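User: I've been trying to design a sequence by hand for this structure and keep getting stuck. Would you show me what you'd pick, starting by listing the structure so we're on the same page?

Assistant: Good idea, let's start from the same input. This is the structure you sent:
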């Protein structure tokens, strides 16, 4: 009878050890899963930031190119107005001098 009780006691101890080992393994697996999920989120965030930065850089470059084109066209208009104004100013001065001299 004592032998049976000893075997039962040993079986209980073995079962407790297996349970403790299993719980430790579950803890390790859960910790590794959390670490991997944090890494996946970090990688996704970094990728998203990189993609967003690339999109912003491309948009900025396109906007700058368009702005340069608009500025060049605007400068052509300004130059034409200045040229026309200079020509008209010379004609106006000549006309005023002619009027003053004729009186």
């Amino acid at each position: 009878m004592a032998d049976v009780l000893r075997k039962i006691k040993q079986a209980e101890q073995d079962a407790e050890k297996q349970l403790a080992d299993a719980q430790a393994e579950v803890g390790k697996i859960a910790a590794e899963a959390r670490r991997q999920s944090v890494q996946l989120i970090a990688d996704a965030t970094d990728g998203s930031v990189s993609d967003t930065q690339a999109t912003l850089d491309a948009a900025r470059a396109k906007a700058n190119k368009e702005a340069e084109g608009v500025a060049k066209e605007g400068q052509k208009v300004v130059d034409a107005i200045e040229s026309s104004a200079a020509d008209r100013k010379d004609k106006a001065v000549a006309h005023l001098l002619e009027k003053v001299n004729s009186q």
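That's my pick for every position. To get oriented when you compare it with your attempt: Residues 92 and 98 are 10 Å apart (CA to CA). The mean pLDDT is 88.
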